[in-house]
Write a structure and sequence with these properties.
Helices cover 34% and strands 25% of the residues. The protein is α/β, with parallel strands linked by helices and 210 residues long. It has a single domain, classed as Rossmann fold. Helix 7 links the parallel strand 4 and strand 5. The relative contact order is 0.15.
Length: 210
């Protein structure tokens, strides 16, 4: 790496940190962490992603793109990455950082409406960085239901959490959950969960938003 490359990387990191903390001060509960995810966490999550021809990978709550970069480094083509970010400033930052990805401004619970029709049912993996345990049970059910409505057959959801408890425990039926990793060097340490449908079809919510 040349001196110029190091300067560019350092500037990018400082810009990302500044944006993250500014948005955290504005909405700490929505951001869900005091620092961005560590690269090691992103790499561990990327190991759970299915890369299949003709299918996209969706990331929910990408923030400043730490996990996104790990997905690209793991072999996910940027043009088949769909990033869904609700925060307007982070959305604009992601558009600049990942010009070949499809960066959508919207709510994860409305994934069916936000996602273009051409990709519905053609998503191999949904990677979530959302602080699900901070959401009401009904909201978690809506998000999980929206995720499994967009997945292709045999698709999966990958989620991390700072808690030892499963974020989707007792939330939706027909779901198989497995703890697949632990990122001890993340701040705070994080557990990675993988979710698939037990029947290979759609997972149904036990609770609704109504």
């Amino acid at each position: 790496m040349t001196g110029l490359d190091r300067v560019l990387v350092n500037n990018r990191v400082l810009t990302a940190l500044g944006l993250f903390w500014r948005r955290w001060i504005s909405n700490p509960r929505g951001i869900g962490a005091v620092v961005p995810s560590a690269p090691a966490l992103g790499r561990r999550m990327a190991r759970e992603v299915l890369i299949r021809d003709g299918e996209a990978v969706v990331e929910l709550g990408p923030g400043t793109g730490t996990v996104t970069r790990a997905l690209i480094e793991a072999g996910v083509p940027e043009e088949r990455l769909i990033l869904v970010e609700r925060d307007h400033e982070m959305h604009g930052y992601l558009v600049d950082c990942f010009p070949s990805a499809l960066v959508l401004h919207g709510d994860a619970a409305e994934l069916n409406e936000v996602l273009p029709r051409t990709w519905r049912g053609r998503v191999s993996t949904v990677v979530s960085s959302l602080p699900l345990l901070g959401f009401p049970v009904a909201d978690r059910a809506r998000i999980a239901d929206a995720v499994f409505d967009t997945l292709a057959e045999g698709g999966r959801m990958v989620q991390y959490t700072y808690s030892p408890f499963c974020p989707l425990r007792r939330v939706i039926t027909g779901l198989k959950s497995k703890r697949v990793g632990f990122a001890a060097l993340n701040i705070p340490p994080a557990t990675i969960w993988r979710y698939t449908s037990r029947q290979g079809g759609k997972a149904k919510p036990r609770f609704s938003a109504s």
